[in-house]
Specification:
The structure is a homodimer. Chain A is mostly helical. Chain A is built from 24 helices and 5 strands. In chain A, strands 1, 2, 3, 4 and 5 form a 5-stranded mixed beta sheet that branches. In chain A, helix 9 packs antiparallel against helix 10 and helix 16 runs antiparallel to helix 18. Chain A starts with 6 loop residues before the first helix and ends with a helix. Chains A and B meet through helix 1, helix 5, helix 11, helix 12 and helix 14 of A and helix 1, helix 5, helix 11, helix 12 and helix 14 of B.
């Protein structure tokens, strides 16, 4: 009916969506392979596809696919807005208000100090040294200083949570303090930013500033109290009387869309509405894990990659790269946040080392900073070069957070089976020595070691104490001096091999584990991971049918995923 | 950057999405409550919100929310196109090619005859009686006849599958023939329609017709052979080496988007590309149920309701209601399909009664017909009054299919616990007679029966043989002459009551089941449903903490959902 999008527009639209999603996912996976947040790869995908790289080689392709005006551009703008609104809904769902209260004093000290210190530094720098901080001529000094302060004070819950999980710190006291502080900072940061947005006004329809601030605070307060209770009361009713999971999914999305419309209407951005809807809904124990997972997966793996990749296509990251500004913003941001949160952590009784780790963890900005920067860019508060500086700052703080915490706490990422699995062999023999020989030769060839040396070391260890576990799994292993990294081979023994398991069962799934002799923890972690993954008889049964490394990895990955979700 | 959508446009956009989704879900649920397909409610929601109803009362609201021109309209057009493309992806995922082959001769006879007969009738009527069939003056006679024939020949897999499941016929031979035929018809129907679309051309960029037809057929053939094999080969690799489930979700969506762009480019609609992508991907045993479920749930409960509701807002269903045309289209459609499929079923050796049931089942049109009609409307093949007639035909055939099959096969919908549960009581006594008395009184009051009569009948039945099942569940029950429908009360007995279960356990969850004495099957079905749902000890444990009917229903619904998905 509406003739907005022509036939060729629709072709372009699907091509643009497919290109953004496909390349964002590929580079997002690559980033994860190097233990970096996926958002890093997603934005790089956009930079490669946009004016920065592809545009320099064949300017026509990005100019057509990611045009800045026209019907497709209008659609992409709307789609990105919906995508980022849903991303904030999911981020809100992750907020656990109870956790903020349980960590009580520590969390509040860390987060207040983590907001106040960078905010104060931001205001001072933005007000007294505006040129160095990248204020454009003609920009409102107060709004710029407030924006700059907020940009320094905001944190990024998803990146922080992911880093702590990777380091095995998520469920520790330190991890809980960091998460609770980040939640609190996210809430406060977005409320401040909502206020700034309202101060800027946005066209003819906007309400008076005071009115907007009042409505924003009332909305936030209502969502955290009355609405939260109401949603918690109505959710079981929806699960009882509407179809499942359609009833809940539709309900959550509807609430989020109406909140988005409301906050957009009062003059702050739609994402504030979905974020608060997420917080209010996510707090209900009646929202099942399964509903949450469906929303999170669809948004995190389809909407979010498209949104973040599209950011990279908007700006020329080379032409707008101002090295001086990038370094300044990065330095001021790191100092403000690490010092602010670190001081807060010291005041609430943490050791010097822990306080440093908390400060560094809170320093990660990630996706939230980029969304904030994009809004400021769209509203004319900043220009391209400041946007580029903020994106670089967000990415660098996210990337350095994990390795730095490891260094400060002298902690290593825990090692997993799947990362070091190198070979799969089907074994015919029922003799343990022969099984070890076959696996040793296979793995020694792969790792460039002497087969005789490996075999000897494993057999010697096996003689000291047999390595059969319960449930048909055995883990012959040996530390090898000078090995660079762990190496693992899997043997599938249909007929079973006697590895002296306590349950008297023959072992049918044999893991030959070689670890660096200098890293005894690696051995412990990998053996624990094997015992955990293959403790369930069901998985071993499926594993016995497998013939290739790819199939084996597919099995362990998919099942690990299943288990994590069910928690 | 792009100034396509203003601040107030974005408010309107979220408001429109929220209104469409919310009302579509509510009316979709209502439709299901009356055992009708959800799409019926979703379209009615749009009709209520659009020019037909709300527009007559307050014309400004639909005119603003669902404007036909402007930036918001462009966005909504793009969003609807993406939504329906994803809906067809999910429909394609449901197609099981193996099933088509396994049902062999029967399915091919039924579906070919079910396509050829209505198609021939459509061509004849559309060519020789075009005015009665609603051809507009000036429309191309051949294209109209071909479109009309396709509209009569197409079927709707999702509605048909749902109807068969509701009637417990899905896994029977009859059900398999119907499903296999519907799959085959869907494939052929969409290829024919793609050809028609290419014949119409669509603007300056379109390819020559012969070229488009050739590319369409090559694309379909390639997706069913080479691409299917390739995807099946690459999926385990993706599950092994990419994150789970993000890797697979992103991959499936990317493939679908590129196929959409390709088919749109060659001159047929994007939905043909996503449908074929779904067929090729869905056929792989490596695509896990969990990935499929995440996609299906998000699309079926968020994208699809928005799309179908938006259809209702496009046309004034009262002003364009041409009663004569509606009746004609409906009659020709029903005759063509029921006779065509019925004859095919007779030829392949089914009884007269079964052949009639197969014909009626295949007659349901549902969502597919509506999408076809919308495309024809957008391409100017038909006008509003024909579109309204097609929508009414699609809805009426879907609505009447279930009840008619029940009548022909003298079959009833199987009865479930959740539908007839009327009361929840917490029991203090450990005495079976007292427990039965409490539950009998509660339920008799609710059903308007004499408490003494109910209690007597249940106790007498209990004396004949105790009704304790394994796992702490008991099902005291009695047939009651003249009862209109089954009534069930649940008693939660913390301390346990001895109902003589074979495992010697006291019963802690008591179901008092009253069924019409004239309907012995109702009793069997409900008792089987209880045994199935509460066979797992886990659920009973959770059930013991429950204090209200709402909580109890929420538990059984959510867990039933979990179980169905895991299959």
């Amino acid at each position: 009916m509406s003739s907005g999008l022509s036939h060729s527009d629709i072709t372009t639209m699907f091509l643009a969506l497919g290109t953004l999603l496909g390349s964002a996912r590929v580079l997002g996976e690559l980033a994860r392979r190097f233990n970096q947040p996926a958002v890093l790869g997603e934005i790089i995908a956009g930079i490669l596809l946009g004016p920065t790289v592809l545009g320099r080689v064949v300017p026509d392709i990005p100019a057509t696919l990611f045009a800045k005006t026209g019907a497709v551009a209008t659609f992409m703008q709307g789609f990105s807005t919906v995508a980022v609104a849903l991303f904030l809904l999911v981020a809100g769902l992750e907020v656990d208000l109870g956790r903020v209260w349980r960590q009580g004093r520590s969390a509040i000290t860390v987060s207040l100090s983590g907001i106040v210190v960078p905010f104060a530094i931001g205001i001072l720098c933005g007000w007294f040294a505006p040129t160095a901080m990248g204020r454009e001529p003609g920009a409102d000094p107060l709004i710029f200083a407030l924006f700059f302060a907020t940009a320094l004070a905001i944190s990024a819950l998803p990146v922080i949570a992911k880093t702590l999980m990777d380091l095995g710190l998520f469920r520790t006291d330190l991890g809980m303090i960091v998460i609770a502080s980040a939640i609190f900072e996210d809430l406060v940061g977005w409320i401040i930013f909502a206020t700034i947005l309202s101060m800027m006004g946005s066209g003819a329809h906007s309400l008076p500033v005071g009115y907007t601030v009042l409505l924003t605070l009332s909305f936030a307060a209502a969502m955290l109290t009355v609405a939260r209770r109401f949603l918690n009361w109505v959710l079981p009713w929806i699960q009882a009387f509407l179809s499942w999971p359609g009833g809940v999914l539709g309900f959550v999305a509807t609430i989020a869309l109406f909140c988005a419309a409301f906050t957009e209407w009062i003059g702050v951005h739609a994402i504030f509405g979905t974020f608060m809807a997420g917080v209010a809904l996510g707090d209900s124990p009646h929202l099942r894990e399964r509903t949450r997972a469906t929303l999170e997966q669809f948004v995190a793996f389809i909407f979010a990659p498209i949104f973040f990749a599209s950011i990279g296509t908007r700006v020329d990251f080379v032409a707008n790269f101002d090295a001086m500004l990038v370094v300044t913003v990065l330095a001021v941001a790191c100092i403000g946040k690490i010092v602010g949160c670190g001081l807060g952590a010291r005041w609430s009784g943490n050791s010097r080392r822990e306080a440093a780790a908390i400060g560094i963890a809170m320093n990660a900005r990630g996706a939230m900073e980029i969304i904030l920067g994009l809004l400021a860019l769209q509203h004319g508060v900043i220009r391209e070069r400041m946007f580029v500086a903020l994106v670089v700052m967000a990415l660098v703080t996210s990337i350095m957070s994990g390795p730095l915490i490891q260094k400060v706490l002298r902690r290593k990422r825990s090692r997993h089976l799947a990362e070091h699995l190198a070979r799969v062999e089907v074994l015919d023999s029922a003799n343990p020595t022969e099984a070890i020989r076959t696996l040793s030769r296979s793995l020694a060839t792969h790792a460039g070691l002497s087969p005789a040396l490996v075999e000897g070391a494993v057999l010697e260890r096996e003689r000291m104490m047999p390595t059969g576990l319960e449930g048909g799994v055995a883990v012959p292993h040996a530390p090898i001096p000078g090995l660079a990294a762990p190496f693992i081979a899997v043997g599938i023994a249909k007929h079973g091999v006697d590895f002296g398991a306590v349950d008297g069962q023959p072992s049918r799934l044999l893991f030959l584990v070689l670890t660096p002799a200098e890293d005894p923890e690696a051995q412990l972690e990998i053996l624990a991971d094997i015992a955990k993954t293959f403790g369930q008889q069901g998985i071993s049964e499926k594993a016995l049918e497998i013939r290739s490394l790819t199939e084996f990895l597919a099995l362990t990955r998919a099942d690990a995923g299943m288990t994590r979700e069910a928690v």
